[in-house]
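ok so I'm stuck.
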Amino acid sequence: MKILHTADWHLGKKLDRFSRLEEQVSVMEEIIAIADEEQADLILVAGDLFDNFNPAVEAVELFYKTLKRLSQNGRRPVIAIAGNHDSPNLINAPDPLARECGIILIGHPKAKITPFGTEHFSITHSKEGFIEVKINTIDFPIRLLHTPYANEIRLKEYLGENKEEEINNVLSKTWKDLANQFCDENGINLLTAHLYMNKRGGEILEEPEGEKPIKIGNADLIYSDSIPEQIQYTALGHLHGYQNIGTKEKPVVYSSSPLCYSFSEAGQTKYISIIDAEPGQPVSYEKKVLKSGRTLVRKTFTSVDETVQWLQENPNAFIELTLESETFLTADERRLIYQSHTGIVHLIPKVKSKEFGEETNQEINLNQNIETLFKDYFKSKNAGQEANEELMKLFNEILNT
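replied:
not stuck anymore, here's the structure
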């Protein structure tokens, strides 16, 4: 059978003042097209479905339309779990109606899904944190351990662990108990979770810039060796770069976000994961490139003319622009830069430091006029840089109001 794994949609997310909704519509279309082209039998969406607890109407509409089309109107099961950006109650709310369309929404850790059946598949077994799916066209069952985003508070509420226990130990025991009870070699055994997981002893993985962090101290670390040996593939969400922190035989994969959502992701290629699986055998998987969306670029220039030329040659990008110069940008220069491109998210002027000896302005003559005093003050605070004419005009306007 084939499984499509995606995560971290962040529907409704903006980049500063820029909406990404049009790009998100395009990339959702791309994911649907890949699912149909690959003839995927099951879709897993590993959390951060929305960007915040109260998503805009347009984001909610895009979410439900996308899931319905991924499910092919109930012919293909779609399982989506909540991430740390999602409201568990919002994710759970449409569950009875969603099931009619072949969509299973899981908001809380250790949720129990009531068994049900459709014309094309059924939930044959269910326990807190576990479901078994039987697809009519496939001879064997699919077992899925599921853990939506679980912080310490939610784990205490839903898993009832002692305060002294680390989250890692709680999840490890919970998963292994479920795997030992339900996961044998007569079916496909999967785990999906939205959390910060790392290889024990491995390099600390960077969480996405601007995202709500999950890892706060070592108590929140979940290690990949906590995954039961029966699990053939682990579908993770949270980190926005594609990576396998498991092994080739037992992949533990962050599938990546579908778009670059912060400038720390500038230059990243985005993917979804397609998995071929059969009982009792290692899975094979490949990453499929997602091509939708504007690129994010961090660029540094030393002249306005060079900046404008590059901007005009690269219109389809969002840009964090640093301009290093000997003097502060004038209003005309700023205007020219912004008129050259519609995707400048940040413009960071950086005045190069000049030598500014300690002897300069060691004594302040308070008998000078206010304009001269301001010039001296500005110079002392900006490494010897003189206040330009426009700044002085603004100072005088304020002075005379």
